Amino acid sequence: MQSGRIFFDLTGKIFNSLLLIVVLCSVALTQVSDTTQQADTSLSAKNRGSDNRVRIFAGLVSKWEPELSKIGSPFPFINCNYRLSNFLPSDSSYKSKLGFSTEIGTNYIIIPYFKIGPEFRHSGGLYIDVHAGVTTSFTQLFPIIPFYGAELGLIGNPDAKTRVEFEVGVNFSMMILPYFAVGVSF
Predict the structure, then answer these.
(1) Burial of 124 per CB tally in 10 Å (0-12, 13-18, 19+)
(2) 108 dihedral zone (left: phi>0; alpha: psi -120 to 50; beta)
(3) pLDDT tens-digit map of 16-37
């Protein structure tokens, strides 16, 4: 029973830390957005703006057990989310952008989550993001679950209105969950 109490104490501290990070990053994003709007108007919106999109994905997720050096059987999932990527102003000669992404969505249509973190985007549609977030569980034991992770993705034809996206990543919480997903965004 003592280990359960330690887990709840640790989970509460992690959640409070994540909440503080989200609040501070939101304030920073607001400041960056205000600064960006006041920046030199000769920069195009594409070079200083944001990439907001609705994404619908299907993929496979597994449970990785490093102590056993094995990955469990893949399990299919469906994910729907709204992703907001804000980028710092950059000169049009740069092929890469650094910014901040925020994502809110659902897995399996019923499990909500929220994540936030830095994003690096290359002009060819390749992106890398590191994030922290929270999700929920329908058990009374763990109602709110903090997590963190990283992902590597590719946006097909990034300038089009409707795009195909590929994403591979891993999330860490009470277990390690590597995943692969394919979807559309618009």
Answers:
(1) exposed
(2) left
(3) 555 555 555 554 554 444 444 4
